[in-house]
Amino acid sequence: MKGQWIQQSENDTTVIFVHGILSSSEKCWTHENNTYWPQLLNEEPDLDGIGIYTFSYATGIFSKEYQLGDIVDALKEHLRLDNVLENNKQLIFVCHSMGGIVVRKFIVDRQLDLIDKAIKLALFLVASPSLGSQYANWIVYLATAFKIRHAQAESLRFARDNTWLNDLDKNFQNLKEGSLFDIKGKELIEDRSLILKNWIGKPIVESFSGAKYFGEPVKIPDSDHSTIAKPSDRNAFQHRLLCKFINEQKSGAVTTTTQSHTLGSTAPDTVGRHFNNRLNDALSSFSSQPTIWVDPVLAKAPEHNSDMETEDRIPMSDLLKEPKSTIIKAPPQFGLTCLAYYLIQQAWAASKSSLWLYLDAKTLKPHVSEIERAVKRELNPLGLDTKDVACVILDSWSNTEQDSIKLLEKVCNHFKDVPVIVMQSLDGTSFVSQTPDLHGREFNILYLWSLSRGDIRKMVARYNEVRNVGSEDAVIKKVISDMDVLNLHRTPLNCLTLLKVSEVDFDESPVNRAEMIKRVLFLLFNVDDIPTYKARPDLKDCEYVLGYFCETLLREMRKSFTREYFLETLLRYCKARFIDLEVHVVFDVLYANNIIIAHNNSFRFKFTYWIYYFAAQRMFHDQAFADFVLDHMNYARFPEIIEFYTGVDRNREAALRRLTKDIRDTTDKVQEKIGIPDGMNPYRFATWRPSTAMLEQMQKEICDGVQDSNLPETIKDSYLDRQYDKSRPYNQEVRDIIQAYSVAFMMQAMKAGARALRNSDYVDPDIKRDLLKEIMRCWEQVSKVLMILLPLLAERGHAAFDGQGFNLRGYFGDNFDERFKTILLEIPNNMVLWTQDDLFSQKMGPLLLDQFKNEPDELKRHILSILLIYQRPRDWREQMERYIESVSPNSFYLLDVYRILREQYRHCYAPRRVLSDIEHLIKLAAAKHTSGRKLPGQKHMKRLTKDVIPKREIDQDGV
């Protein structure tokens, strides 16, 4: 392997020769009369002063695992070491066969470096396949006969399922059509075939594969795949074409090219096509599924907000017409990235094109130079400039990431007069929310809602057109039922995943997310298309080795990886474990189905849950890794791994015992450090109709608890002195409470424990009861922390530390006392909203109902009652009737139940039968309050006015 100068450049232009597969620089370019093409070019008088450089690499039949990615890396390093990139402003690549693929991959991977150096590019492609070659298929068979693997040929093979090559083709096309490089090119194609068994009469590179990128390809008469790269003398047709091509590049003459654009003189279809392609790629799920877009619903309030109105919804057109700095919030995998790409595409497609810039917070550091580089990377390939930017979208921003606020500040400062739209991924483990303080820039807050039934109908109809699953109504009913049973959000991703699962065994439903993913993988590896020349891999083998790979990612805290790293890691492990597995097939299947996606110059899992799923399989097989996750509560960093681990066989008893102990120890630590006495319950003084005396009693209950606690004196003083400036100590003291008292860590442990509990159907009931009790103790401690923050929340509307804190959304009152009361009364409801998605599934119903019936603590029992209202397991109506019967007619508990039932009736997705149950319980609660009877009858309910039952805010197709 080497790079060699034939002639150093004297005029900033260098021609680089790159040979093809099973060849070398000497063999590829040398005619039988010993004419060496690079030297022939060097002797041209009209080309005096140009540089001529050859690059050679290992590509024999026994090159084995030396892959195309390795060749590209070697090309980059040789060009750097020999100062080819530093000393030239124009590079002209002459590429034979696979050399063209190597160079195209180099350009796609190193585009930023080439842009930074302002290097012009031209490609002279000599029988170079864009879509692969049958010759490579032959090499694969030949290598197999020698019982070896030829990685280069596998990447070069001609097949419609060659995802690596097809993806390179697409990326190069996009780069060429919109590139600032102004890429120019010429393509030569062979005239006749080589005599190869099974390919007699076929050129090695077909015309449609070797003449794809540049207009007016030229067939070289009487040439085959080998001789086309070996001109005999100066009069050879291919040599004369090359000389003419080089002179055109030197003089700036126009050949087939793609022009660069600016907003003022652009071809909007080029930029628009780029935005369309990016959106379609983001929407792509499994390879056999259609691309589906459903208009999302944006609103000023979360879906679960009891005060929200239909008019709180914001039309997408308003956001596009007049963009303002906005934070759009949603849980992970809700579709924020697709929404970002959609907004950018729609803004550009408008009658008056508007450029919106996409930035990815996952890949950005809070430094001006990093931001400038990211902007350049986004705009330069499109020929656009920073001054053209009308709006910035910062995607994948999360309040749990280090320096997240600093990053947002830097982006806002960099685009001082440009609106910034932030796509915030809400972390359910954090009981605090982000409060950016950006020195004068105010953000509107919007929430991305889940799909309505009507939206799901659209998705099912479109899906059925491509992969018929069943009758539309039956499929919709099953998808919605499965989402309810598994407690999954109604997101496009979850809908598509369940539709994929339903393609086989329509009448069977997965019992948890782990089984759902396993069924998807079964379809991908055992039912969907696999390359015909490859052996179909065993799914259990795939899960086993991918488990090892994901263990490596987690231990090394690695997010991205190269294809070579993936293959080498799996090959090494398979060899050590005596497993016969074609690991490149595993990569191809994962990549083709968007489980692994390209990311900058490497790859990553599209969603992190794939990492946690495979890692959970590893825990099941490897005790050392299981100990690594469970010891020292490492699982608190990624609670999903516990969900999948316990979902493998639903009987991970030892794991539940460990989780119970960890949560108990962490909760004890929080309780000991905060020191608020057990049994503090201000809600026992609250009544249906609040009074000043009632509020004072509630405040006194909290104040007494705080004074008896171990909290800092500054916190205690804020309760005693109503004139005290509460904001002064809180920013520091609250941070100390959260960090030193392990509250956030306790919340993470609780999340993992809740997810494990809902997957543990076959674990001993007493173990499950113990874990549920510890989870409820966490609820109690978090409620106390919220009460600690009450004065600041009531005073200023938010309590923040290092950018994190609680925010008040909606109307909470005009003065301190009103806000104090309203916030306090919302705490039980918010505890459920924060934790229900982790804890509940329909299979949890019996355990929760058992705890509800036997829970002695009235506040914990009330929180459980709210959970039952939201999730409605089997027999929930009967248990709620008993609860309504047990509480006082004028109590806060009855009022809270009544209020939440009404909110659910207005906004929940539910069948008629469930709506009838909710309506009955609303009337029962209202009648109890008005009549004062322990259990009012039908005659008391009939006396109620009609406005007791609220109007439904969702039309029937949205139910």
From TrEMBL:
Entry keyword set: Endoplasmic reticulum, Membrane
Location in the cell: Endoplasmic reticulum; Membrane
Primary subcellular site in the record, as a coarse category: endoplasmic reticulum
InterPro entries reported for this sequence: AB_hydrolase_fold, DUF676_lipase-like, SERAC1, STAND_NTPase4_dom
UniProt keyword annotation of Membrane present: yes
Domain annotation STAND NTPase 4 small alpha/beta: ranges: 559-615
Taxonomy, superkingdom: Bacteria
Residue stretches making up the DUF676 domain: 9-141
GO cellular component, one term: membrane
Name of one Pfam family that matches: nSTAND_NTPase4
Keyword Cell membrane among UniProt keywords: no
Name by which UniProt lists this protein: DUF676 domain-containing protein
Source organism per UniProt: Methylogaea oryzae
